Input
Amino acid sequence: MTVNPVPSVSATKSPPLATATTAGNYFVANYPPFAFWKPEFVPQFEAALDRAPAPALPNGAAPAPLGVYCHVPFCRKRCHFCYFKVYTDKDSSEVRGYLDALLKELAVYAGKPVIGGRKPRFVYFGGGTPSYLSPDQLRFLTEGMKRLLPWDEVEEITFEAEPGTLTDHKLQAIRDLGVTRLSLGIEHFDDHILEINGRAHRSKEIARAYAYAREIGFPQINIDLIAGMVEETEEKWRETVAKAVELRPDSVTIYQMEVPFNTGIYQQMKSAGKLVAPVADWETKRGWVDYAYREFEKLGYTVTSGTTVVRDARQVKFVYREGLFSGADILSIGVASFGHLHGVHYQNHHEFQPYVDAVNAGKLPVYRALRPDAEERYIREFILGLKLGSVSASHYAGKFGKDPREQFAGPLARLNAWGYLTNGGDRIGVTRAGLLQIDRLLHEFFKPEHNTGRYA
Ligand code: SF4
Output
């Protein structure tokens, strides 16, 4: 491993605070960046599948925990800010063909040495819109998944849902699957904002779905909001936060609007020859998230990451996020999905038919992969940990063999000089101002060759 040189911090200025929202990915979800994952590394991934699971810690005491991510790429409508691979035109036989492909894909993994007898500790249904599926389709999918990798050791099952797809009957079916966290993609409570941003649901559907989900007792209900959608105003944001607070959700995830190149908003910008997206600037969006955090904190909620606030931090856990951030194996199935097994990142084919055809031909539908080296693994886990706002230096020293204050002396010195760090004993923490812009600060920890300005 290399140690980044300690710079003369007095001569180093904080990276300029981006003001206007221009096109590109802002949110750091993984490392090294996806742009460095390549088709030529897929054989490394395939070789990793034939080895027993990697240990969770260097002492080899236990294998890394296993989680399953299942990607459901169907939506009723494509939101104008969406950058995921989603399909709005598939009929029921194509959906059924996709569910068959998911189970065939999972069956290939279930028979590989890398699973090593492990059962999933967490399962995550993301998309797209998992709640687009009918109750019968959901039962078919989940029963098949359980037959291949039993869920009797699962601690958490997360299910993303679009409010307008949730009838009472479907909500009950989702609850009966054993879902522990229902994650509602609300985004905003104002009907005009929802409409102008291409969302399929309206506020009435939010109210009905939330009330029934509460009534039937989901252990945890998370709501997603986005600060800075097209035509957002200070007043409308405050109203949305007030409505979110009124619901008393167990947790709230708040994203700052980004405009990646594969969104409808960017297409409109391009045809109009515009460089700046028609949404609030970054400083305003940070202010809006801060406002929301403070409103929730008044009620005793706790900010637990740059994007999350929770009602009871002792009870509300995010097992999937903890696993993802700490090097767990994530067996990811479905078109365009991202996973990580035995130290290798991988992504599936990002088009529907090549994905289904590869699985039906008995092949793994993996399109690109990357095995991070030891230094990259350390950077990955450390920067993802910083997104939670505070990390334990001794945890990383024990796991990676070197204290992060030495390993990352340079970037930590810079963040400290810019006023974004709090240090106390074993903890390395990020200030609220730092947390609200953590994704851009994390680039300070990247290897130089990965700081290309192109994240995705
Ligand atoms: S519901 Fe979510 S996944 Fe579907 S189009 Fe909208 S943002 Fe994308």
Notes: The first strand starts at residue 66 and ends at 72. Confidence is low (pLDDT under 50) at residues 1-11. The first helix runs from residue 42 to 49.
